[in-house]
Design brief:
single chain; 179 residues; mainly alpha; 6 helices
Length: 179
Amino acid sequence: MSNSQIGEKAGKRAAIRAGVAIAIFVGIIGLIMLLSPDQLYNWLKAFHVIAIIAWMAGMLYLPRLFVYHAGAEVGSETSETFKVMERRLLKVIMNPAMIISWILGLWLAWMAGFFGEPWFWIKIVAVLGMTAAHGSLAKAVRLFANDRNQRSARAWRMINEVPTVLMFIAVLAVILKPF
């Protein structure tokens, strides 16, 4: 069995674990709704913040992996290790965290009636930017997996700042509510 086949099999197992984790999460939310409906908003907000932290951790770490991967020789053991790390980070942490962040964020906004607030739309634009950045990083994972990276380590260092700027905008909009 080749390294790529082993990596694919491990990646499928990781994706199944991520799906199970999301199912467990949904079950926990359902249990909270039954046992403590008056605290549901606070529980959802807590899980939303946890999901955002996980998503941001991945959004900041993945480009850093790309910085090092861009310097690794194609086909080397180091390059193959980076491929596994990148794929697992994306599929097991980042994708589920992004999905949970979006679902809970929209649910919370609906529960609190934030859709009419200008600051909320600033946050939404920042989160849409973060989602687009996520998609771009997911594409880069595929390119690296096929040994077709098109960017230098320096470019990846600069790209690494995009999620930080978007996070600042989203957090400032929510906390300061400037409009």
